[in-house]
Amino acid sequence: MWPYPKIVAHRGGGVLAPENTIAAMRCGLTHGFYAVEFDVMLSKDGVPIVMHDPDFGRTVEGAGNVADFSAQELTERDAGAWFGVDFIGEPIPTFEQVAHFCNHHNIWMNIEIKPVPGYEDRTGWVVAQATKRMFEHTLDRSPGALPLLSSFSFEALQAAQLAAPDIPRAFLVDEVPPDWHERLLALGAISLNTNHKHLTPLLARAVKEAGFGLFCYTVNDVARAKEILAWGVDGFCTDRIDLIGPHFGEEPAHISPSLR
Ligand code: G3P
Ligand code: MG
Predict the structure, then answer these.
(1) Domains of the chain as residue ranges with CATH
(2) Top EC class per UniProt (predicted)?
(3) What are the C-alpha distances in Å from 244 to residues 1, 8, 18, 231?
């Protein structure tokens, strides 16, 4: 049913590298992760770039909004220095650069469409179109071979659906809304992606019984990870790629049953 990896490195490398950079993707890979989540928004000139906050100040020094700068200007900004001296000079990457890195290394992508407020439709459309172009010559058409587009923005996902109906979508929510089922159907979404903090076993069962994937963010505690997997959650992303490995939750097949 869930054709994607179960454990996904959040923002590339979780807490071990500056989020949403190529260094983060490399870090995830070094820790054995062949599945990443990252955030995409548009520059002033409509180029998808990989960044979480629409404003500078946290991961990029200074003040300003992503929507007021061209891709050329953004990719000259440092997105690594805030994290540590080892990452000084690590730039804001474009979506194309990150996707190229992931495709080159066979890393599955959960592409979170994270529009700068006011640019929901446009971002959903552009990111979905770009994704479609990247995968149109992929010979493997099985569901797990394609990335998953997710967003908190219903409008962005509607635009993505129009732009690239064949690229799978997930509706991303903090708290599961009462009309979750209608919304998933309206979007033709295959999965509900939700904050594990508000999930209950009852909700998890309802989503699974309705035939959808169920994915959680951001699970950083081993006991909690085991708990939600036992509820039927299909997968989750984690910042603690040092604690929760890519094979977490898998049966250790090499150990004989008598030794378990
Ligand atoms: O895609 C899951 C998760 O990344 C959503 O929250 O704020 O970390 O992008 P955020
Ligand atoms: Mg995200």
Answers:
(1) 7-55+92-245 (3.20.20.190)
(2) hydrolase
(3) 23, 10, 18, 18
